[in-house]
Every structure is written in C-alpha cells, then in structure tokens.
Amino acid sequence: MRQMSDDRNVAIGRLMGEAPDIVWAVMNGDETGTMIDFDGRHAEHEANRWFDRHKREFPSNVEANAYHLVRQERWPDYLGEFGDCAASSRFINWAFRQTTFAHPENVILSHQLIVRGMTVQEALATYLLPAVDDAPARQ
Which range has the worst mean pLDDT, 7-16, 30-39, 56-65, 110-119? Predict the structure, then answer.
C-alpha cells in the first residue's frame, strides 16, 4: 500500500463524496504480500472461486504461507502521482468549483505553491485538506 499519498487520496475522495473501489486480494499471513487480486463487479465471487480451487490444488502452499482472502478499499490517485489522469482531473475540476476558490487570494496562494514546484493537484490538496477531519465517509 502506498504511504503518504494514500491518506491524502482517502481524504480527497471523502471530501469529493466518492467511494473507493473494492478489491479482493489473496494475501499471505501477515498481509505483506499479495498473490493475486480481483476487482470489478464480480470480484468477490471470482476471488472465492479462484481461492477454493487453489486450496484444493496446492493445500501445502496455502497452509505454509497462510494465504487468505482480504477485502481492500482502493482510492483513486487524485494527486496524479501514479498516472491516474481521470481521477486527478476530477479532483482539479471539483476543487475549483468549491466556494473556497471563489476568493482571488486563494487562487493566488495556489498559484504561488505551483510556482514553487508543486503540481496543481498538490497545491489544491495543500490548501483544501485542513478540513479533512470533518469530511464524512460516503456509505
């Protein structure tokens, strides 16, 4: 799992009212390694089917590595650090529609951060994320 940016992506997603993608992964006992993961509409069913077959065919491998299924939430890459252009574009569009940026001084502040080397997404996140603790998780 990514470190710092994951926390910021979760916070941004919650502010935007979006929901994470649900992924089912076959992981080792201490959950530091993923053997395979499944996403999409039928991910849970596909993961269970694959894992049941793997347990039948390779029982000693499953036991030795303590493989098990784990449900994970994966948030989009709103900051654009890993090439998710759609998510970062949604974040930029959403951020500039917020009343926070209706004031010219806030746009100027973001511009100054960008001039100092931040990406647009980082500058917007830097300005908007202090309110993250109040952002409700979408159910």
Answer: 110-119
